[in-house]
Predict the 3D structure of the following.
Amino acid sequence: MLIRARCEKDIKNLYRRYRAKCPSIRRPTSDETRDYRWRISISKRDWVKLAAALAGEVDYPNFKNAVHRRRDQANKGQAYGEVWATMHRVQVEDSGNRKKRR
C-alpha cells in the first residue's frame, strides 16, 4: 500500500508514531516531481492495523473545527475550508441535475 502526503511533517509524524506497531512501514521518501511529494509504503496487513488505530483515535465531532485547534495543522484550515466549499458546490449542482432528470 502507498500512503501519500503533501506535507513533510504529516508523513514523518505518522511514520514516527506507528513504525513500532507496523513493522512493514518504510521510511518516508520525497520526490518534488510527484503530485504528492511525500510517500510511505506499508503492507496491506499493517495498513489495516494503522487505519483501525487512526479511526479509533478520532475524538472530535467536526474535522474542520478540530484542525483549527491543532497548532501543527493550523496552516491547513483555510485549504480544508476551500475543499469543503468546492465539494459542496458539486453536491448542489448534482442535486439540481437530479431534479432536472425527474
User: Anything to note?
Assistant: The mean pLDDT is 92. Residues 77-101 form the longest helix (25 residues).
